[in-house]
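hey so u asked for the seq, here:
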Amino acid sequence: LLEARLGKLNPGYRPNLAALAGMRGEALQHHGLNLILMGPGLLLPLIVTAMLSAEMNAYFYTAWMLNSMVTVVPVALTTVLFAAVSADQRTLTQRLRLTMAASFGYGLAAILFILLAGRWLLGFFGESYAREATLPLILLTLSVLPIIISEHYVALARIAGQPGRATLPLGRTTWSMSQTPATSASACTACRVNGSATLAGA
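ran it, structure tokens below
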């Protein structure tokens, strides 16, 4: 429909779909890699609800959303790295050092901030959130450091034109990292019961 309307306005605007045919394989690799990276984050709230309870998932999801403000910066920087270096690969080393330094600097600052003010932030949602979700938030924030490394690995694979190379190892790594939030939520559930230190659902 869009193609037809653009063609009526100006024939020069009609997309040349034949030019995209040679990119089909690489596009599918990029799509598969994106699904691998996004999958665990979409499934985790369901896993926490199934393993623990809807109430604990409310605490976990609040921490998860706050943590997304931490991880979004390294992801954005590596996206910029991919776009910039794709235009001129001679700048790879210089730009890689810049994004790595900026990502780790921001990540360490975010960890320090959450350690000092995480409970206070959660308190805006209620005292129960501050009590139950502080530990998951801290553990999630610590995960920004390995996420920085994995996101740069993904960017380098994309720059090399081999996104499929990152799909399998990143799938395993991302899924392993995704177990931390469920474990931390289990720890909080256990700590609610008479101060027990036994992990619930273990």
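Confidence is low (pLDDT under 50) at residues 181-202. The chain is about 80% helix and 0% strand.
lmk if thats what u needed
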